[in-house]
Amino acid sequence: MPQKKATVVGRIELPQEAIRDAKMRSAPALPGAANIKRQALAKLQQRSGTRPPLQSGGMRRPPMGPGSFRGGSGARGPGGPGGMGARKSKIAPTIDPTKLVEVEEPVSMKALSEALGVKVTDLLATFMFKLKITGKNINSMLTNEEVELVGLELERNIKVVEHKEAMDQLVEQLVEESEGEEQMLRAPVVTFMGHVDHGKTSLMDALRDSDVAKHEAGGITQHIGAYKITTEAGQSVVVLDTPGHAAFTAMRARGAQLTDVVVLVVAADDGVMPQTEEAINHAKAAKVPIVVAITKCDLPQAKPMQVKQQLMLKGIQSEDFGGETGMVEVSATKRTGLEALIERILLESEILDLRARPEAAGKGTVVESRQSPEQGVVVTLLVTDGTLRVKDQIVCGESFARVRAMIDDHGNNLTDAGPSTPVTLFGLDRLPSPGDKLFAVEDAKKAREVVEERQRRIRELSRAERSAVTLETLSAKLAEKNTQEIKLILKADAMGSLEPLKKCLEELSTPEVRVNLVHSALGGINETDVSLAEASGAVIVGFNTIADSSARQAAEIAGVEIRYYDVIYELLDQVKAAMEGLLKPQEVQNVIGHAEVKATFKSSKFGTIAGCRVTDGIVKRSAIVRLSRDGAVVWSGKIGSLRRVEEDVRDVKAGLECGMTLDGYQDIKVGDVLEFVQIELVKRTLGDE
Length: 689
Fold this sequence. Notes:
Blueprint: H1 16-26, H2 33-48, E1 101-104, E2 107-108, H3 109-116, H4 120-130, E3 141-142, H5 144-154, E4 158-161, H6 166-178, E5 184-185, E6 189-194, H7 200-208, E7 225-230, E8 236-241, H8 249-258, E9 261-267, H9 274-286, E10 290-295, H10 304-313, E11 326-329, H11 338-352, E12 355-356, E13 363-372, E14 376-385, E15 388-389, E16 393-396, E17 399-402, E18 405-407, E19 413-414, E20 416-417, E21 421-426, E22 437-440, H12 444-467, H13 471-480, E23 484-492, H14 495-507, E24 513-522, H15 527-536, E25 539-543, H16 549-558, E26 562-565, H17 568-582, E27 586-603, E28 607-620, E29 624-629, E30 632-644, E31 647-648, E32 651-653, E33 657-662, E34 673-682
Parallel strand pairs: 1-4, 6-8, 6-9, 9-10, 10-11, 23-24, 23-25, 25-26
Antiparallel strand pairs: 2-3, 5-12, 7-8, 13-14, 13-22, 14-21, 15-20, 16-17, 16-22, 18-19, 18-21, 27-28, 27-34, 28-32, 28-33, 29-30, 29-34, 30-31, 30-33
Helix pairs in contact: 1-2, 8-9, 15-16
């Protein structure tokens, strides 16, 4: 027993179970209670890692040998509690296993270990031996399904929650700051949507007296444009012109999210088309009112009433038929119906009562972005609230910068831009993605924190995508080794073109042939692209971009092919044709004739010879033969030899007799039926199964 009193250095809050065990040990002894006390004490000591269990008689177990010591808390060396061998040890905090554990995605092995209070080595052992998931380490990123499996295995309640970014906190702060600002009516944002070549851009040109359609490649809009139209009465309408081609579905979706009113453009001579239906779905998903503009009504073949009937079948009912959708018949070339269309748009916006705070800090949404060698990052922005000014500090995507300059849709320099104003903005150091939010901020420290966190999150998500290897992805990677591929280096002029191009090229891939985008970026084609293409065996594709002189010279020397496109479906069609050239041709079996065995002959040199009569079609020496007996095919193979009147022949026509041997088959009987099949190779397309 120690000779002096111990010093109390702190108190430990024990679980309720431990307190009950202690009360049981201190209670008066009852018959058979000694065994219960020993079991409870052993359980408590095993959980907390303290002293070894008592032996019978209440004496502690002696040391294992001379100079040895006991581990765990309270372990003492030869010097006793106050000697040199005394050690302090910490008791691990007890975590309630029923408590809900929340982890933010993406979840790393280390973060999950800390949240659960489980050692990383134990967690890795659970993955390896119990869940049979190998290849994990402390830095591995886990999928939500893997986190759920761990929770079930460890009987812990784990919830994966979305990460609340510093940007969300910044937005909340800006909303609170602008709540006291006075609200005023703002101009409506209108999106022109519809099928390709139905006259959307021409109609917009007629409204704003411009010639945008003349400068579009192939007469088709390749980017989203934002323009402001002002009537003679001083009322303004902001127009988003979205592409109508099927490849730009994602771009049209972004346009619908920004808009207050959708103008659905349908040609009177063409009617409702596939992209018209997609535009209706986007508008309904955005829950915005729809105004229908029936264009090309000046043409002799125009049928506006038929268009209204087709739209009614799609759930868009005209006011003429008792519905609520306004439909206006217009002509861009004759300039008829334009005023009625504007009046209808303003009527819809008046019902919506659109308001904004001009005195608040500027907020906007990126409509389009591109990289320019002379101007740097160029962003088409729609100011949605507040007023954005030159030299304002802004946060957008992964950038924190100042506004260097702004110009309107007519190319005039601006010092400030109020709500519902489309501008072209300069000053960002990194290229944002269309749809990113822009905020003018005063707190530079908070803004830098937002940008740094976004950059870190993008790195983590990228690492999580690379590390997420499942049986499905592993089998897919192994299958890729047997897949033909076309390697491309894609350079485009704007992010709004690059995104749909990448998506469409990836969708062309099949299990047999795929598009391998070695590199994709904005800007012109340079020598680095040529070097990469030479090393990887890729073809360089430029969409609305060209190669500089040094890149062209390097490509000629290296033999690298550079192709230029300005219309997206021409690029996709040529890539699709190249991919179809790599597909193995399909074997098609055509039955060319039948013959019946009339007699058989045995030959020591040739084996069994079948004497046949050709019943229909023709028998060819190169054909494949199927031998059937009693209606069942018993053999299939090649013809060994084919003779007619002791002469070798290539083919025998119907009604004639011949003798033949079958390659590797001797069991031929009278009455057998021979079917002859010719195999033809047919070129396949990507749509073939």
